[in-house]
Specification:
about 250 residues, about 25% helix, globular, binds adenosine-5'-diphosphate
Amino acid sequence: MKVLDKIIYKNVVDSTNDLAKKIARYGAANGTVIIAEEQTGGKGRLDRKFFSPRDKGLWFSIILRPNCLPNDAPKFTLMAAAAIACAMERFNLRAEIKWPNDIMYDGRKLVGILTEMSAEVERVNFIVVGIGINVNVERNEFPENIRDVAASLSEMNGGNLNRAEFFYAVLEEFDRLFAQNDFGEVFKIWRKYNITLGRNINVVEADSGEIFTGKAIDIAEDGALIVDIGGEVKTFYAGDVSIRTK
Ligand code: ADP
């Protein structure tokens, strides 16, 4: 590995993102990775809970100190999704990436990505990319309230996967993309596996809570989603997308 060569392994943590942000504030280096067997307070966006049971998945966070502007931070979410898609390909599994931060199987979430940042107006101090991958979680092990929206790689694979091998594959792919520092390549991979572009979607805009219905037409240079809403083009920086079947 060129960049991701410092791995901190924990048994239980509250949230790998919270711990990563804490040690980043104390100066943890670019490329530091924190992985835990279990998170007791795993989080999604807007402080939604992310179920992270012991020994069944990969719950980890990557600390990055890229030389970029705060507006570039969302692109690291796309980089993580692209890296996971490439890792899945090595296991003959085809990723379906849903903008902005999920990888899906059968319409259910396999992987959630949560990117957080500490920045000043013109400078990023650090970025934390949190990744939660359901690897060997059985359907009936998910809490009932997420059973219909969550999926696991084992289900897709028709049997358990070796978590250490899959983790290493994701790190290798992320390391390659980060060291390459070429978002052209990230966007190419992201487009190849995305299931959002060209589809009729509903978007709940994060800031306003407003719901829009339209067709996802493209992804912007900064990772934003461009949607055609009845002939008018609108750009979304954050939001929840659901794909409509017609
Ligand atoms: P989204 O990207 O779908 O908005 P978040 O990033 O906010 O989701 O993640 C939190 C949501 O994901 C929760 O509200 C819950 O519905 C779902 N969820 C929680 N834990 C898991 C898990 N282990 N696998 C899949 N989905 C989960």
